[in-house]
Amino acid sequence: MRRLRKLLGDEGGNTAIIFGLAVIPLIALGGGVVDFAHRAQVRGELQGAADTAAIAAARVLQLGQLARNDDEEAVQADAIATATRILDAALAKFGGSSAANFNVVIEDGAISISTELDVDTSFLGVIGIDDLKAKAGAEVNLPEPILMEIAMVLDYSGSMRDADKYIRMTTAAGDFIAKVQKDRPDTSKIGIVPFSEYVYTPMATAYVRDTGSGHHHHDDDGGGWGGWGGSSGTSVTTCLLNRDYPYSASDQPPSSGLPASQWPEGDEGECDEYGDANLRIRDLTDDFTELSDALAVMQPIGLTNIALAMEMGWHMLTPDQPFDTARDFSDANVQKIVILLTDGRQTVSAMGPSGAVSTAAADEVTAEICQSEKNASIRVFSIAYDVEDPAVEALLSGCASGSASYFDAGVSEISDVFEEIYSQIAESVWLSR
């Protein structure tokens, strides 16, 4: 009995047994941190892949809508295939995983993606946990693609030659057009209104006052350039001045029987110079190469007529004559934009609300046009380019759609301004959650 009691009381070797039993949960606890960290890394990569796949699929669907593709099933199949390729490539990185799956669903105006991956463990297996699940998901709403119609109203008055301002402006505007061409060629149109004292443009003869007066113009049969027409069936390419108020502050098309609603022609000799300076208006188009080429050869000349230029920019964005390429304002999927740039004050007199004809009256018309454009949901960006006149700055800041849409730019800052404008108006698909 003494020997039995001694044997039962001997604790030698217990420490090794207890340590052996305790080391398993210690390994699971310490190594589990590594396994969970790896699962978090995998889940992050899965989420990035799901986001990318959802956005890419949404782009495919939007392009199908833009192309007015009636084969909805084929477009959806292409979108799902696009998402699948991205997800397959992402999941292929985790070849050691025991199971992986994903699901792509298009319904209720959205595309949703869910993916799940069994991530093999390295340490938790000692306690029977051979894998951890990593899940990710993304959803993108599918609104109708937003189309952009942009009227660039650019000052080409003689003062723009100072410090090569017009060259800097042309470069910055050309870079803006190039960005649109690269990023949004299927969803954008741009027009250019180069202005100084006059605007030089094709126009239906029915919309020009006293075209038989002998003023200089070029006759075009069959409606002329860019879809111009009119009851006469002919058009002219000529220099125009401001209409009488209130027509000058409206988007109402001219009437052949109402001279006050028509644009009067400018001086014959000066109009020749506008043609030589390549200052012809370019209506909304998606031929961005032609726009850039036209912009590159425009030369400054003459005085400054902001009121007339803004009126023409407004007409360019309306679906009615004299410009007729814009979409209707009732189309909620069109964002209409005016970019106005000038380096100085109005120097051409025009009729204002009181009936007086002066540069101050022309400023009143400009302010009224800007407000009417904003009331019509046109977004107005204005640039005071190398301007030191507080009255001009006040006019342009009042024209803008908000403080973020107004820019007071020095000569060397104009490229940055156009880049900022582009970043503000560039539409993209955003994750909904």
SSE diagram, text form:
Blueprint: H1 2-9, H2 14-66, H3 72-91, E1 99-107, E2 110-120, E3 131-141, E4 147-155, H4 165-183, E5 188-195, E6 199-204, E7 208-209, E8 218-221, E9 234-240, E10 263-264, H5 268-276, E11 282-285, H6 288-296, H7 306-316, E12 334-342, E13 350-351, E14 357-358, H8 359-375, E15 379-385, H9 390-399, E16 406-409, H10 414-425
Parallel strand pairs: 4-5, 4-12, 7-10, 12-15, 15-16
Antiparallel strand pairs: 1-2, 2-3, 5-11, 6-9, 8-9, 13-14
Helix pairs in contact: 2-3, 4-6, 4-10, 7-8, 8-9
Content of β-strand: 15-25%
**SS-based class:** alpha/beta
- CATH class bucket of the largest domain: Alpha Beta
The name of the CATH architecture of the largest domain is: 3-Layer(aba) Sandwich
Stretches with pLDDT under 50, minimum 5 residues: 218-232, 427-433
The share of residues in helices is: 25-40%
Number of domains: 2
Please count the helical segments. 10
Distance between the termini: 76 Å
Number of strand segments: 16
SSE string, helices as H and strands as E? HHHEEEEHEEEEEEHEHHEEEHEHEH
Biggest sheet record:
6 strands, mixed
Shape: elongated
CATH superfamily label of the largest domain: von Willebrand factor, type A domain
Physical arrangement of strands within the biggest beta sheet:
11-5-4-12-15-16
Nearest-angstrom radius of gyration?
A: 33 Å
Mean pLDDT, to the nearest integer, reads 84
CATH topology of the largest domain: Rossmann fold
